[in-house]
């Protein structure tokens, strides 16, 4: 007599919006969600450092194919930047490497420094980051004592709004809400603001409140998801994140087989294609007068 447990059915494909707890890595969250959702096919869009909390978009089953495109969307953070000390990681998880009294720094100087870090800027990523240098993660080299040189990269800081300035002894804490492009390191902004003011700086608090259209108000904690695993269906997820294109039955058959459509003039970036019955068919990209599939989701 067989004692094998009945196989758990695969969950529906879709997104889970997690409110990541502090001290968890993004990989920790993926591992936990594999158990909660009951599938190995789980991934995340846009890594959050262990210190950070907030919106982490998790993809389940076929929705893992959306994640690379979602990771490129705009993000919003609430942050605290501490002036007066630098660390080897540019955040509070690292070791303090230098301190400089910052009590003399005026609010006007802080705002001027922030203005210089707003808009399209070139940013050098932190040495302790996941960027690969000669095939190896930068953080592995840095933690082995190697001086890692990373090239500056273009990022866009759409908004850098100061929400409070607090003085703690010889330190100055700057609370801010930051809207930025993919690839931006908020701890590098803290580092660079401190450097421009001559006192050093690092990040002491970070909470991501939005990734693309997915806000903290729709995020659920790990405990909440353990009780009820809420999965946003793929069609709803795509309709919220990307422009929508509805096609005819003939066009639907073409897309389902990986064929190209004529451009609909919906612009750059992924476009969600939906059949006459509202079924999500694919993500396409318009280029050179045609719309070519990036990912096809129908069988």
From TrEMBL:
The Swiss-Prot or TrEMBL record annotates one GO molecular function as: RNA binding
According to UniProt, the reaction catalysed is:
uridine(55) in tRNA = pseudouridine(55) in tRNA
Residue limits of the tRNA pseudouridine synthase II TruB subfamily 2 C-terminal domain? 242-297
Q: Pseudouridine synthase II N-terminal domain: which residues?
A: 35-186
The answer to keyword Kinase applying to this record is: no
Q: Name one GO biological process term.
A: mRNA pseudouridine synthesis
Top EC category: isomerase
Its EC number is: 5.4.99.25
Residue ranges that the Swiss-Prot or TrEMBL entry lists as coiled coil: none
Query: Which residues catalyse the reaction?
Result: 49
Annotated tRNA pseudouridylate synthase B C-terminal domain residues: 187-230
Alphabetic keyword roster: Isomerase, tRNA processing
Q: Which family does it belong to?
A: Belongs to the pseudouridine synthase TruB family. Type 1 subfamily.
What does the function comment of this entry state?
A: Responsible for synthesis of pseudouridine from uracil-55 in the psi GC loop of transfer RNAs.
Q: What is this protein's name? A: tRNA pseudouridine synthase B
- The species this protein was found in: Planotetraspora silvatica
């Amino acid at each position: 007599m067989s004692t094998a447990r009945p196989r758990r059915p695969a969950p529906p494909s879709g997104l889970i919006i997690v409110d990541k707890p502090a001290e968890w890595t993004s990989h920790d969250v993926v591992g936990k969600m594999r158990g909660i959702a009951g599938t190995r096919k789980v991934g995340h869009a846009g890594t959050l450092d262990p210190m950070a909390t907030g919106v982490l978009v998790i993809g389940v089953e076929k929705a893992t194919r959306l994640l690379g495109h979602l990771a490129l969307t705009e993000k919003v953070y609430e942050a605290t930047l501490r002036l007066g000390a630098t660390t080897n990681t540019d955040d509070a998880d690292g070791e303090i490497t230098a301190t400089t009294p910052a009590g003399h720094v005026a609010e006007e100087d802080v705002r001027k420094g922030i203005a210089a870090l707003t808009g399209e800027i070139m940013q050098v990523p932190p040495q302790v980051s996941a960027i690969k240098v000669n095939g190896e993660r930068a953080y592995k080299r840095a933690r082995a004592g190697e001086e890692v040189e990373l090239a500056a990269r273009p990022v866009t800081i759409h908004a850098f709004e100061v929400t409070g300035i607090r003085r703690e002894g010889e330190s100055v804490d700057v609370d801010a809400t930051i809207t930025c492009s993919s690839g931006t390191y908020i701890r590098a902004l803290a580092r660079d603001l401190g450097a421009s003011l001559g006192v050093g700086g690092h990040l002491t608090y970070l909470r991501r409140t939005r990734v693309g259209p997915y806000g903290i108000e729709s995020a659920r904690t790990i405990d909440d998801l353990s009780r009820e695993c809420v999965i946003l269906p793929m069609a709803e997820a795509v309709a919220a994140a990307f422009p929508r294109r509805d096609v005819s039955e003939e066009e639907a058959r073409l897309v389902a087989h990986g064929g190209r459509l004529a451009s609909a003039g919906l612009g750059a970036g992924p476009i969600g294609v939906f059949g006459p019955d509202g079924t999500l068919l694919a993500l396409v990209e318009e280029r050179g007068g045609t719309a070519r599939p990036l990912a096809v989701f129908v069988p």
